[in-house]
Amino acid sequence: MTVRTPLKLNGGNLQEMTSGEIDVIKNQVRYLYGTDPSIDLSQVASGGSLGTINDTRKSAGAYSTLTTRFPTEAETAEPGTVTVNYSRINETVESTTATADTNNKAFPIYQSGGNLYAMSLTDMYDTFIYPAIDTLTNGGDQPGTYRIHTSTSLAGHTLVSATPVFSDTRANTGAYTAGGIPETLDQPTTITNFYLFRTDAGSSSSYALPVYIRSDNNLQEYTAANFDAILKNCVRHVATSVVGSRIRYSINGSGNNRGSGMTDTILNGSGNYQQRFVNADDYRAQEFPDGSAVTASTYYLRIYQV
């Protein structure tokens, strides 16, 4: 890895940038990625590329009936488990190309041994892009990255879809009554919805502009627009295609957690046995979901480099 110190103009003279000035450019790289990320997550109805996660809940057992007495608890079906599969997060890797440098003059200059040289594309990556990618994937709310949240609004973020990517449900114990036997087996209530957000880009940084070699071999300071375009293309391409620094997402795989854990909770009771007398020829019994809520699984959206 070769980190270069680009040159800037200071009063008409060439001067090496300070480490602080280089850090500001790295911040600009993160901002530029946030304006147009090349790794996109979306909410889909099913078949999302990040795989399947499960919401589980208890349901009532099937009711039993006898003509001369109530079925005993042992004769009555135990509560069952309902599993709902969610595969709603899809990752798309955009098509990008590396920034062209056909005349070896596209990038900023630096000095070594009293001579001036143009940075190579690898120098650009080492100096500005790889450090920015490291920050983008550190698990914080970084520009253009995605996270999970438990409501449909979050400051500094844009909601990807009002449809949740996961819902935690449990049996609605209040919906089951002895007088309703035979009760509908599955009577759920939603505990928490989980939504996909993208972190906003934030604000552009004002930074010292480096100098490059023109086609006529004279030196010139970049315009902010021109250098931004180079930085943006570089970071978008590295994020999609440069092995070791590609940005990707997983659920409970490698990487740093992004936002709220998606919890699957379930009641832990063994069944609430209830009876209903209808008439002398109809004695009914059924077991309803009961118990306390416990966490069966927790799923995390994670960001990583590969």
Describe the structure.
With 306 residues, this protein is an alpha+beta fold. The protein has one domain (7-305). 17% of the residues lie in helices and 37% in strands. The chain is built from three helices and 22 strands. The chain has helices at residues 19-35, 121-136, 224-241, and strands at residues 7-10, 13-16, 39-43, 53-59, 64-66, 80-86, 89-93, 109-112, 115-118, 146-149, 157-159, 166-171, 188-199, 211-213, 219-221, 247-251, 256-257, 262-267, 272-279, 282-288, 293-299, 301-305. Strands 10, 11, 12 and 13 form a four-stranded antiparallel sheet that branches. Strands 5-20-19 form a three-stranded antiparallel sheet, with no helix packed on it. A hairpin with a 5-residue loop joins strand 14 and strand 15. Helix 2 packs across helix 3 (224-241). It starts with 6 loop residues before the first strand and ends with a strand.
Gist of the model:
The protein has helices at 19-35, 121-136, 224-241; strands at residues 7-10, 13-16, 39-43, 53-59, 64-66, 80-86, 89-93, 109-112, 115-118, 146-149, 157-159, 166-171, 188-199, 211-213, 219-221, 247-251, 256-257, 262-267, 272-279, 282-288, 293-299, 301-305. With 306 residues, it is of the alpha+beta class. The chain has one domain (7-305).
Give the topology.
Blueprint: E1 7-10, E2 13-16, H1 19-35, E3 39-43, E4 53-59, E5 64-66, E6 80-86, E7 89-93, E8 109-112, E9 115-118, H2 121-136, E10 146-149, E11 157-159, E12 166-171, E13 188-199, E14 211-213, E15 219-221, H3 224-241, E16 247-251, E17 256-257, E18 262-267, E19 272-279, E20 282-288, E21 293-299, E22 301-305
Antiparallel strand pairs: 1-2, 3-7, 4-6, 5-20, 8-9, 10-13, 11-13, 12-13, 14-15, 16-22, 17-22, 18-21, 19-20
Helix pairs in contact: 1-2, 1-3, 2-3
